[in-house]
Amino acid sequence: MVIALQSKRESLQKGKLRRKASPLNLSGNDFSERSPGLIVVHDLDGKILYANPAAAQSLGYSVEDLIGRSMIDLITPSVNAMFVPTMEQVRLHGSAEGITPMRTKQGEDRKWWVRQVLWKAPGRAPLVLGDSVDITSLRLADDALHESEQRFRYLADHIHQVFWIRDPHTNQVSYVSPAFESVWGRPRADILDNPPLFFESVHPDDRTLVLHTFGRLLRGEATEMEYRILRPDGGQRWIWSHSFPTLDEQGKVERIIAITEDISDRKQHEEDLRRAKEEAEAQMHAKSELLAHVSHEIRTPLQIVMGMAEIMRGTALDAEQSELLERIEFASENLHTLANDLLNFSKAGAGRVELREQPLDPRDVLRSATEPLAANAAKKGISLRCNASESVPTSVIGDPDRLRQVLANLIGNALKFTERGEVVVQVELADHDMESMDRTSDKSANEVTLRFSVRDTGPGIAPDDLARIFEPFSQAHTTTKQSFGGVGLGLAICRQFVQLFGGRIWVVGEVGLGSTFYFTARFGLPS
């Protein structure tokens, strides 16, 4: 009870203080006391006679602290000199309004929107009634928005792409960046004043595409497209466009934003590459035709020479004649190999080689490729062996003739360059690591990849030769052609056939330690 009486007494004392401090006695006015608006009454010199609680709270003061203070002291120092001319305007015209920077008790700057009205009461000097709103947060938001817009404008105005904002319903262009003028070759004002000009500038052959794409945008889809435009100077440019719609709260397309870029240089580069590819293919085809023709022209007289040599071999020859005939036979065999290599190389280069698909046993192909060369190996005293892993299927689907040709070429080379020791031919399943090396990781479940190898104990291959040994007309040693003949097409043909098998070919070796040629081939499995 004592506490309640004391609280009541303090309340009455505060009320007396307010009524005493405020000659207007507005402290009991329910409207002004409860209003969220900032209400201040002062005289023309700025002395505050009344302030409602909302105004005091905004400035960080109590109502009692504000009464008697000068408005000039509360206005931010940089602009408080404007108070006197503002009061003169109120005195002459009856009112004034605007944004006034105010400083709180804690030193924080706030922004008030103030409407000041001259208040004349009988028997009293004119007063000023200020009705205000603290708009600091609104001003900050507005400043942030303005800064964001300025950044957007700067970015859009300085990028080389063309930035568009378009109304999808009226087709009116509300903004287009300055880059438009360099790409379209016309002032921005043209497209802003005449929106249909955009469609008119599109190449007639691409207008259907542009219309279709615009329809997708109206349905709310983001799009990309490439189209051509015609410039006023008669030039043509290729344009890449990425567009996306923005939606309103109802999910309807509100505007369309697009970024377009001149890709004419890229298109020209692509066209140059296409033409160069076509020219290269035409040259390759012509070269293949020439090689095939030369091969056929060589084979006809060569068959006559080889036939005559065979007839002479059956006659009585003295030692000198026998030696000369042996040289003719050796040269004929080399020439025959060259003719066959030229024909095979020309066919593979022109894409005229097609693999046959038939059942084969890899072991049988290995034996058939090795047996014709066994006599040559025995003559040189070289061991020629074949091995097949037990994991290799006995039946796969592929081209036995092309496989045999690759093996025979590699085995023949190994025997040619090996003077002593052995040549070992092997086939096995390609393990996981090897499959990844020959890029066969995408093989299906009804396929198998086999790895073949031909190892010899010959002179080996220098590191510098390993990188070019499979190139056409390339040989490992400078003395190879003089010693063994040939023009370096055999390994190039092997590589072409192996690529048709879906595999790859490579060699490992060191000078003096022999070499091993590997290749992989992909085969089907019987269903």
| Largest sheet: number of strands, sense, barrel closure | 5 strands, antiparallel
Question: What integer is the average pLDDT?
Answer: 80
**Oligomeric category:** single chain
If helices are DSSP runs of H or I spanning 4 or more residues, what is the number of helices? 19
Distance between the termini: 104 Å
Adjacency order of strands in the biggest sheet: 2-1-5-4-3
Instruction: Please give the share of residues in helix.
Output: 40-55%
Radius of gyration: 48 Å
Approximately what portion of the residues adopt beta-strand conformation?
Answer: 15-25%
Shape call: elongated
The total count of strands amounts to 17
Please state the structural category.
alpha+beta
Question: Uncertain segments of ≥5 residues (pLDDT<50)?
Answer: 1-22, 433-442, 477-487
Structural commentary:
- With 527 residues, the protein is an alpha+beta fold.
- It is 47% helix and 23% strand.
- It is built from 19 helices and 17 strands.
- It has helices spanning 2-21, 30-34, 53-59, 63-66, 71-74, 83-93, 136-158, 179-184, 188-193, 197-201, 207-218, 264-313, 319-349, 362-380, 400-417, 432-437, 463-466, 480-484, 490-500, and strands at residues 38-43, 48-51, 95-103, 109-119, 127-134, 162-166, 173-176, 223-230, 236-247, 253-262, 358-360, 383-388, 396-398, 422-429, 447-456, 505-509, 515-524.
- The strands form four sheets. A five-stranded antiparallel sheet has the order 2-1-5-4-3, with helices on both faces.
- Helix 13 packs parallel to helix 19 and helix 14 packs parallel to helix 15.
- The longest helix has 50 residues, at 264-313.
- The termini are far apart.
- The model is unreliable at 1-22, 433-442 and 477-487 (pLDDT under 50).
